[in-house]
Amino acid sequence: MITTPLSLFDTRTRTLMPVTINNEKCARIYSCGPTVYRDAHVGNLRTFLLSDLIVRTLAYAGFTSTLIQNITDVGHMSEDLHEDKLLAESAKRKLDPYAIARDYEDRFHKDLALIGVAPASGYPRASESIQMMQDLIVELIEKNFAYVGEDSSVYFAAQTFPTYGEISGNRLDALQPGHRYEYTDDGAKRFHADWALWKSAGNRTEMVWDSPWGPGFPGWHIECSAMSLHFLEGHVDLHLGGIDLRFPHHENERAQSNAAAGYEVVTQWVHGEHLLFEGRKMSKSAGNVVLVSDIAARGLDPLALRLSFLENRYRSQIDLTWDALTAADSTLSRWRKKLKDWGASTPTQESEATIAALIALLMNDLATADVAIELRQIERDESIPRGVRAHIFRTIDQIFALDLDRAEALVALTPEQSALLSEREAARADKDYARSDELRDQLLALKIAVKDGPGGQSYEVIS
Ligand code: AMP
Ligand code: ZN
Question: Which of 32, 107, 276, 444 makes an SS bond possible with 319, Cβ 3.0 to 4.6 Å?
């Protein structure tokens, strides 16, 4: 067991814990990935940035990481209607669910790249990992942690796992029947807090697989147990996700994984707080869902989003605004310009001491907000030689990844290009295809190539 210099708050023990690495010098990290029935919004991206920040901070300290992030393309049921999110989207838009899934998966990768998130070691898809989920379910039945219901679904028997509730504080004896958690409609459960590992197909015909219990599909929670155990070989040093996943998703995952393995599979559970936008929870119905493409369409650098995230610690809620994003965008441009003016880095004893102090802040539960404040002070402090300032900024940028050495800002869209893109999106929504084709040609003349996919319109700036 190796102890790294990075400490993170562990949700289960509610303590600040040094990150430990189980075997070698490589941290094994699992981060719950996107459900690919829609674009990731900026809130999701805040959570997805957390793994990148941790991987970069560990790398600075000399540790490599294996990061696995799953792609949920089956089994994630909506809380209100108990429908598979992918199939509901497929029915609504009369498109193949896999076509929708692959398109949004592609867009997810592009969005991550735009905010400087380095690719994970692997992005296994749920629909391609069915066998490992079934193997795990067989094992859980054999070990008497799970049972086949009269409806041919397989359920995890919550009461067989005595420490259920340690992550979220939701102990089984306090969970009332009818409490709002997933799968309350599962009729064949023996106990109200049991959950489905495998759901019998019933009259569902798409995204269904054969199994020892008849045709069906996996539950969402078993997906993360199966993938983390398989791809990280039985042990997870750090398990990441948004705060809403503590219960029931991570609680159920912990029960499944520990029950099968016979030991505590995850050393540390780390959760990122949520992001609000202009004071409200982002939701389709409130009409305030913000995507990376919305930021780019306003002519702002997507890395301004990354800087806005870094200006807050991952464990505090952020209320993001367009004003804050615009301010972050000008900070970025200013820093890039200054770095160019400051010229070459000149490391000195003084710069090394300052860097050590900044890194210490990051090692203490990723105090990125404090580092951002310090950077602003260093930027203004004329008593610090320019080359020293340059060295400090460049070093911190190995973790902040704001691309500060970029000579020119990314080609920002002109107001005309942005307006035409929005107009074309609206034309497509109105099914006015003649107008949308016209706008496509106009955009092409302005060096914007527009592409349509099941996830909607996307574009590339062509040179
Ligand atoms: P989903 O695609 O809905 O399964 O969510 C992907 C990730 O985004 C999960 O880790 C969620 O916890 C996280 N998440 C969802 N909404 C927000 C939000 N508003 N702010 C931060 N993270 C979020
Ligand atoms: Zn998960």
Answer: 276
For the chain, what is the mean pLDDT? 93
- Closest approach atom of ligand 1 to CA 32: 10
Digit-coded pLDDT (tens) for 361-412: 999 999 999 999 999 999 999 999 999 999 999 999 999 999 999 865 456 6
Best of 11, 29, 36, 44 for a ligand 1 pocket test (most atoms within 8 Å of beta carbon): 44
Which has the closest alpha carbon to 51: 37, 34, 69? 69
| Nearest CA residue ID for atom 15, ligand 1 | 44
The CB of 165 under 6 Å from ligand 1? The reply is no
The residues pairing with 280 across neighbouring beta strands, listed in sequence order, are: 277
| Full domain range(s) for residue 304 | 276-400
Write down which residue in 272, 288, 323 finishes a domain.
Answer: 272
Residue 418: name the closest of 446, 377, 381 by CA: 446
pTM for this one? 0.89
33 and 75 within one domain:
yes
List, for residues 98-121, the tens digit of each pLDDT value: 999 999 999 999 999 999 999 999
**How many angstroms separate the CA atoms of 375 and 393, rounded?**
7
- Dmax of the chain from CA atoms? 76
- Summarize pLDDT for 281-335 with one digit per residue, the tens: 988 777 889 999 999 999 999 999 999 999 999 999 999 999 999 999 999 999 9
Task: Tell me: do 230 and 154 sit in the same domain.
Answer: yes
How many independent structural domains does the chain possess?
Answer: 3
Residues 245, 348 within the same domain:
no
